[in-house]
Design a protein that fits this description.
The protein has 335 residues and is mainly alpha-helical. It has two domains: 36 residues, no CATH class; 248 residues, no CATH class. The protein is built from twelve helices and four strands, in the order H-E-H-E-E-H-H-H-H-H-H-H-H-H-E-H. The strands form two sheets. A two-stranded antiparallel ribbon has the order 1-4. Strands 2-3 form a two-stranded antiparallel ribbon. Strand 2 and strand 3 form a beta hairpin. Helix 2 crosses helix 6, helix 6 packs across helix 9 and helix 7 packs across helix 9. 33% of the residues are buried.
Length: 335
Amino acid sequence: MPGARRARPELAEPPLERRPEPPPGFLNESGRAGACESWFIPGPMVAITLNVGAAAFARSVDLPARSEPAHEPTVTEWRWRGWTHWPLTPAIVLVAGFAVTADFVVSWSGFVLGHLGRVPVAVILSVGIVLAFMVGLRHLGLDRANLLAWREFLVVAAAALLFGSWQYSTRIGGFPEAMGLVIAALNEELIYRLAVLIVVGALAAKVAGRNWRDAADWGVGPGVAAIGASGVVFMLLPGHLAQVSDSLHALPFVGLGAVLGYVVLRTGALLPAAIAHAVLNLATIAALSGEISQGLRMSLAAAALVALVVGTHVAGRRLGRFGPVPVAASRAGDA
């Protein structure tokens, strides 16, 4: 009829899409099938939905417990924690190099300023003392901690030195000559231990790309090179070469220099090495004078060096530089 409102045609509803059944055995977190209610939706949601479903599936499956890596059993080894701490500068290395060169030249030229008994006065001793102050006396063992760490050795060795000096003064060469031998030992420790170790060790560390400004950072190679050079240069002194008739007789001097160098470079303590060296000087001249036998001299030398090495390890332990270090059992077995 006119003016009547036309009825709106009804839109046909699309047929319902049948939702596929979820894969068999696929459970959601609650244990019901169809963890992915919208897994059939096309488009970017597919990847998101599958990831969520995979995560749920992984959590629902009883996987074997993840085994933690087994800790390898460890053992402890007694080791040194590097060489001693010597803060070095170019000026210190230059003074050390000058001291070694000057003393070597003076020794071979025969130039002397005087004698204490039959012992020439050490001309370059003053340069060695300056070098010691530049490095720092506390870095050379002249502090309370080092003196306490070396206490047993220092007491026994000092008593042996006093007794030897008294015997030498009364029976062989007099007190000035005994003091000359003690001063000569101190000079050789300052020059052929401290100075040689600094020059060779710093140079080797520089070549190896290590930090040459601190002996503690040199590493094994430069340290061993410095110790070896200390022994060789020490053997080349005129007074020592006069006692060397072949290569076999050179070994004691090289070994003595190397052992003393090892002691000084490990702990930095110069005083114990100087005392032991002075005792050996007195025993050597006493043997050459016929006052004691060569066998007794060698026995005294062996006892002094063994005591020095033992004292080094005891002092290193007390100073915290030598002690047990945990290492893997397999590495310990391979060592």
